[in-house]
Task: structure prediction
Amino acid sequence: MNHLTSLKRVILLQNTRALMYAASLVQNELLTTQKMPWGTLLTNRQYKSMPTHGIGKYRHLLPKTLPKKKKDKIQMKQIKAATDTEFGVLNVCVSGYDMTLVEHYSQYIHNFCNHLDVKVVESYALPTKTTEVMVMQDQGTKMYVDGILKTHERVVQISEMKATLCPIVMEVLLKNQPEGVKLCVKEHTEADFQSRFKARPELEGLIAKVNN
Amino acid sequence: MAAPFRSVYRPLWRIITGSGRLTVGMRTFSFTENHFSAKNHKTASVGSPWTLHGAVCLQRLPVISQDRNPIEEEFSGLMQQMELERSLLSDHELRLLEDAARISRKQEEDYDSDEEEDYGDNEIVTAQDLEDAWEQKLKQFHPAQRSNGDKLDVSSSERCLADSLVLLIKQDVGSQKVWLLPQIQWKAEETLRQTAERALANLPGSDLKATFLGNAPCGFYKYKYPKDIQKEGSVGAKVFFFKAVTCSPKHLPLEKNSFAWVKKDELKDFLMPEYLKQVNRFIMSL
Result:
């Protein structure tokens, strides 16, 4: 009898162990397939299933940036209608020696065009040109540097300005032009566009060699 | 003209290019071409009782900037002071300080000139000497006067250099002499802008090199002829105004009282009320 009971107990124990093992297996399976947010007993990390998951994400809200092209295309001139003519692309160049005046005036032009709903395509600066003023000495032939003048230039590019609006815009710009600042309104050409890029002498030399 | 235009302190350069170039710098002009060629002009309908006139609103642009308000003066003074206090010393100012330090060191008894570095030219021409030379040069420069007397006679185009002035002409309209903007009747087969150009060219002795700002008229005025002049087929006239600018107009060899350069607020002393109302709509006071 004792032998039997002990045997039974051993079997029972074994059974229970097996059962517990089986039960834990089943539990694990359940949890991994159903992802129930239960307790701290298990070692799965819960944050992906929390309601606040991904709370700091913003990359999906930004506009998709295309990979940057090397060169932009130039705007084509718009076809002018018979009565309601519009200009194509115009460059308003502001240049002068005093940088604050030049910059403020170009900003004024930009804001003015924005206010009148004239489309401003871009607004850029051309490189500063330095001029040395050399004066001949009174006694002698040597020239010495009298002063250095720097010419700054800013360009505001506008497009599709109505021809009826043009006289008004021009008049306001002319009347508000500060002293010492040059104003120049030109049509935009390919040459203007290319002049902004740096010259590549080696490339040009190689091209010349290839052509020759 | 009383006196030739003396050199202004900061010369005013304006360059406008349409398809041509207009340099308003050292007072050299070249006309802009009429890039948008005259389209086929619809001939006036046969039954129209209005005669067309083209007129030009010629403006002399302001030559100098306007004077500042007291508040603006104070503020600009304050800003300059602040910028001066916050700025760093320039090369020239550093050189001045070094020279002063060097001189004070020279005065001392145990002065050893071999210890000086980079002596070179600085001994011959110190920064202070340069400053003195520059002061001398500045004294030789005389800027032109900002105001030639605003109460000058109205026919001088050099009054009120800070404002823009409009040219008015005394013309015969009907039987009266009336002050108005130069106008002339439209001829067939020409654009209204060409009419306005002709109106300007017709002023005696005008090589006023004016630039027209565009092909579109800026204003419009219509008036009826008095009953006795009204024939069949002409009730009155319609005038279209075009804007033009000029920078340094020469003296017009007209009679003293037949033309005037006026500011916008002086227009009411010259023009008829109805005419003034229409003209005021397109004349901007800066």
Observations:
- Residues 2-34 of chain A form the longest helix (33 residues).
- The CA atoms of residues 101 and 198 of chain A lie 27 Å apart.
- The radius of gyration of chain A is 39 Å.
